[in-house]
Amino acid sequence: LLDSAGAVAPTIFAELSARAAETGAINLGQGFPDEDGPTEVLEAARSAIASGRNQYPPGRGVPELLEAVAEHQERFYGIHLDPRTEIIATAGATEALTAALLALLSPGDEVVVFEPFYDSYAAAIALAGARLVPVRLAWPDFQPDTAELERAVTNRTRAILVNDPHNPTGAVFSDAVRRSIVDLAARNDAVIITDEVYEHLVWGAPHRPIATLPGAAERTVSISSGGKTFSATGWKIGWLTAPEDLVTAVLTVKQYLTYANGSPLQPAIARGLRLPDEFFSELGRDMHARSTVLGDGLEAAGLSISRPAGTYFTVADVSPLGHEDAAAFCRALPEKVGVIGVPVSAFVTPEHDEEYRSLVRFAACKKVDVLEQATSRLAKLR
Ligand code: PMP
Ligand code: GLN
């Protein structure tokens, strides 16, 4: 995690957002919206601050948020949870993931991870002293090969780390894939840790949490966050749900990572989780429309794309433009045409770098005119 001079290496997102600020390029790199979320949620935070909710909240989370998460899981997925024992609030999904991995892994344990993967996964697995075993998601549909998955999961596997809907590919796993994950976890007595932060950013079928599959709930730690659903990525309010014994294990780590977090923001996210159904369905429709503008624009600029089924992201292949090295392409892009994208190689293990070499991830969570401007700039590369 240090560079050759011994300095902390910035994450790919920090590096690219700094480049965007320096060059004035349109930032389709780091995934954050350029508009605020629902006014009810913003207003609830203001009023929580004004009413003095500014000291440490309970370590497990503010009861209102824990209850709102339980209601949300019941309303959308029919999952019943006890907010006192089966849910904790965290500093974003990131802390939930790190605390779960540190709590449940021992040095030398294997964790099966779908590659490409969100950047914090490898770092948290390394902190736990465990070993990441990648299962590739291949262009263009990014579904795992079930034979490869079966080979990867063994009696050394302590956890299968799922991210569905998936960053960076925009893929949504099929039910057959979800079933085989649950089956393999059960056969090898592994836990499933599932990152579902894009649960409401899907089009097509409604999101199906892996915890709802038969035999899954008792071994699954589910993680989500208010960042994406309420367009408040900077608030870092997340949550984790699991059977009580797993929650207790995670809490032992969480209480010394941050102890507690986001006192006035937790009730505001609770307010958001209680918004009417229409808010949530509109969120998916709206992101689909933006994603279509981005995808159509990338195709018009001569790139080939994998059409996502959800998330903020679209992966494009830049080889039709004559570029084989997406990392070099992305480094030159801000100066050349004023756009930022992330090379997919930032999300893979060095052994598999070659397979993803010409792929770039672009974010669609921006105003439509910004997306149009970005893709018309890319069209000048032809
Ligand atoms: N998991 C995935 C797949 C993500 O894309 C992100 C952030 N974009 C996170 C976790 C982190 O979420 P948070 O900001 O709530 O920590
Ligand atoms: N999750 C966001 C992305 O994938 C970035 C979050 C971060 O900067 N760590 O773009």
Describe the structure.
This is Aminotransferase. Its cofactor is pyridoxal 5'-phosphate. There is one protein chain. The protein is of the alpha/beta class. It folds into 2 domains: 12-37 and 278-381, Alpha-Beta Complex (Aspartate Aminotransferase, domain 1), CATH 3.90.1150; 39-273, Type I PLP-dependent aspartate aminotransferase-like (Major domain) (Aspartate Aminotransferase, domain 2, 3-Layer(aba) Sandwich), CATH 3.40.640. It has 13 helices and 13 strands. The chain has helices at 12-23, 39-50, 63-77, 92-104, 119-127, 146-152, 175-187, 226-229, 244-257, 265-273, 277-300, 326-337, 368-378; strands at residues 26-27, 87-91, 110-115, 131-136, 157-163, 191-195, 220-225, 237-241, 304-306, 313-317, 339-340, 342-343, 359-363. The strands form 3 sheets. It has a 7-stranded mixed beta sheet with strand order 2-8-7-6-5-3-4, with helices on both faces. Strands 9-10-13-12 form a 4-stranded antiparallel beta sheet. A two-stranded parallel ribbon has the order 1-11. A hairpin with a 6-residue loop joins strand 9 (304-306) and strand 10. Helix 3 packs parallel to helix 10 (265-273). The chain starts with 11 loop residues before the first helix and ends with a helix. Residues 31, 92-94, 118, 163, 167, 195, 197, 225, 227, 233, 236, 238 line the site of 4'-deoxy-4'-aminopyridoxal-5'-phosphate.
